[in-house]
Design a protein that fits this description.
about 450 residues, alpha/beta, Leucine Aminopeptidase, subunit E, domain 1, Aminopeptidase, 2 domains, nine-stranded mixed sheet, five-stranded mixed sheet, elongated, manganese, Leucine_aapep/pepB, Leucyl aminopeptidase
């Protein structure tokens, strides 16, 4: 179960958040025995340090958590979470030292640090519970945590247990919980209802491809989220080498992210008309797999030459984007673990995005900073358009040369949106190693920033 804040009436242990430059002043106000104990434990106020003081019965009576310096805090995020894992069992209440502007983020990080993926192996839970700091929006933070929990669980689950049917079930469970409507088009019905590229990519798998379509809300701007749901990507006939296939259970990270974001939106009751579209497929190898040099005709009518069957994500997204555009959405936002080029450009921690909407960009950039959810704008560089035009068809799904791979993928997707404002996120969806509040494994990216952005758009 996702972590929540402790009941404020619970007996609690006072927690002092101590920066390195504030330790001396704090210690001077304490009895000598306390100052000596803290010094003997090697506590300096560095990020990740924690120390407790015991009462006469040997139980923790006071706790300290290191908060580093301004310089060390600038090198990371969720600093309090680094200490939470080192505190003994108990319920803690922050009583001093945490700046008001940092309370929401540090409380969020504390709850996120409780995440454990224990479907296949039980793991030790976080023993330290937290009472929500004064002035924070506890229900909103808990909704963010639960949405992130959902995203992580979906990504972390191996493809044998998280194929298109299971991804559909996750969406159905979410729709039922929030009284949303959901429709799913499966298998050959995709051809009958004109989603030819979703069908082409997924038809070789034993588990049928499908388009998941969920809607919620009846007032406010129309926002459509489109998430890439490639539940496993072998590369198709252009088969990936083993080293590249190892993490391909996470190739549905875009779908996992939009489902987590959808939960956040619905749980916090943001006044928008939300639609979630997820093309859910497996890119597999079989006699009926789509082939290099095939030319596919998309829902929009644009033809696409297949120059690499491993560039399949943009194909399934394209049909879903065309449907979203037909509906007259005010904003369409796609999220996908789309290109290795994005990782080369910005690494695993930043979420690169594409948009030409200055209102959206301003709101998102502010939200990314405020929510400790970093994003980085990339260009829809129109002069690169000829790179995705092969001559024999309208579009090329894998331009030769290897230059600007994330940009050309984004330009490809933009061709399928004509009438709506569009933003595309080329996320990684994976935390390569443990970090405060971010366990190694599946990770949501840009979802908290987008939640705040959608709230801003709803109020305009």
């Amino acid at each position: 179960m996702p972590a929540t804040f402790a009941d404020p009436a619970t007996p609690s242990i006072p927690l002092h958040v101590i920066s390195e430059d504030g330790l001396k002043d704090w210690s001077q106000d304490q009895p000598e025995r306390i100052a000596n104990w803290i010094d003997s434990q090697g506590f300096t106020g560095a990020i990740g340090q924690a120390v407790t003081l015991a009462d006469e019965n040997g139980r923790p009576s006071v706790a300290l958590a290191g908060y580093g310096t301004k310089a060390t805090r600038a090198r990371g995020r969720f600093h309090l979470a680094a200490a939470a894992a080192k505190l003994p069992q108990g319920t803690y209440r922050i009583v001093s030292g945490l700046p008001e502007e940092a309370r929401s983020i540090e409380a969020l990080g504390w709850l996120l640090s409780a995440y454990r993926f224990d479907r296949y192996r039980k793991q030790s839970p976080l023993r330290a519970a937290l009472i929500a700091p004064e002035g924070v929006d506890a229900p909103r933070i808990e909704a963010q945590v639960e949405g992130e929990w959902l995203t992580r669980d979906l990504i972390n689950t191996p493809a044998a247990d998280m194929g298109p049917p299971e991804l559909e079930q996750a969406a159905r469970d979410l729709a039922q919980r929030h009284d949303a409507t959901i429709e799913v088009i499966t298998g050959d019905a995709l051809l009958e209802q004109n989603f030819p590229m979703i069908h082409a990519v997924g038809r070789a798998a034993d588990r049928a491809p499908r388009l998941i379509d969920m809607s919620w809300g009846n007032a406010g701007p129309k926002i459509t989220l489109v998430g890439k749901g490639v539940c496993f990507d072998t590369g198709g006939l252009d088969l990936k080498p083993a080293a590249s296939m190892g993490l391909m259970k996470k190739d549905m990270g875009g779908a996992a992210a939009v489902l987590g974001l959808a939960h956040m939106v619905m749980a916090t009751q943001i006044k928008i008309q939300l639609r979630v579209l997820i093309p859910a497929v497996e890119n597999s190898v079989a006699g009926n797999a789509f082939r290099p040099q095939d030319i596919l005709t998309s829902r929009k009518g644009l033809t696409v030459e297949i120059n690499n069957t491993d560039a399949e994500g943009r194909l399934v997204l394209a049909d879903a984007l065309a449907l979203a555009d037909e509906d007259g959405a005010d904003h369409i936002i796609s999220m996908a673990t789309l290109t290795g080029a994005a990782r080369v450009a910005v690494g695993p921690d930043l979420a690169p995005y594409y948009s030409d909407d200055e209102t959206f960009i301003s709101a998102l950039e502010n939200a990314g900073r405020d929510q400790a959810d970093p994003v980085w704008r990339m260009p829809f560089h129109t002069p690169y358009e000829p790179m995705i035009e092969p001559g024999i068809a309208d579009l090329d799904n894998a331009p030769a040369g290897g230059f600007a791979g994330s940009i050309t993928a984004a330009l490809f997707l933009r061709r399928f949106v004509s009438d709506s404002r569009y933003a595309h996120f080329d996320i990684y969806g994976w935390q390569p190693k443990d970090a405060p509040a971010r366990a190694k494994g599946g990770a949501g990216q840009a979802t908290r920033a987008l939640l705040a952005t959608l709230a801003t758009l709803a109020n305009q």
